[in-house]
Amino acid sequence: MSNLILIRHGESQWNLENRFTGWVDVPLSPKGEQEAKAAAELLKSYTFDKAFTSKLKRANNTLAFILKASNQTGIPTEYDQALNERHYGALQGLNKEETAKKFGADQVHIWRRSYDVPPPADKTELNPEGISESLKDTAARTLPYWEKKIFPEIKAGKNIIVAAHGNSLRSIVMHLDGLTKEQVLELNIPTGKPLLYVFDSAGKVTEHRYL
User: Which of 85, 87, 133, 165 is catalytic?
Assistant: First the structure.
């Protein structure tokens, strides 16, 4: 039996300011730090063999709070861009309410919640390479990493924690729960709330719930 903990980072400063964040490396807000510490308390009794996280400090710092609280700061940890948040393209840094006024609430809703429609990919100061991702695009990088790096550890009987982001985690949950692309649009993963998956020796999920 193996335990997998999925944890979305605590509230970031740009979550607080209602701005599109994506790959911009912003810190946790004071509330986000408290959410991370609360998650750490819930997870103090769990033992982990390995940790996986993104390249972004809001997820890294959330993980650090959790591992410190359980005296597990020395466990192997992998940092990979495959677990980064969805790239919001030209919307990164923009206030969500102001963006809705500019482009229309319906259009912004499509960019935010559709499965395969990415935001505009215009080159901006916060997006000089002109990158943009839909949830489908995010899953296309997150799930191969899951299959190659994370799931083999679970099948080997190890206990794993993944500290990442709303959309990279939605991709993994969509896969684990067998959600359709319509069902995943209704899925929201709250900040700082640990999600436990229990796997049997064959790698099948036997239980999953929020702690």
Answer: 85
Q: How far apart are CA 29 and CA 33, in angstroms?
A: 6
Catalytic choice (9, 11, 35, 165): 9
Q: Is 208 a catalytic residue?
A: no
Q: What are phi and psi of 164, to 5 degrees?
A: -145, -135
Contact 49, 75 (CB under 8 A): yes
Q: Which domains does the chain have, with CATH numbers?
A: 2-88+133-210 (3.40.50.1240)
Asked about 125 being catalytic, the answer comes back as: no
Q: Are 131 and 87 in contact (CB under 8 A)?
A: yes
This model's pTM is above 0.90: yes
Q: What is the pLDDT of residues 6-36, one digit of tens each?
A: 999 999 999 999 999 999 999 999 999 999 9
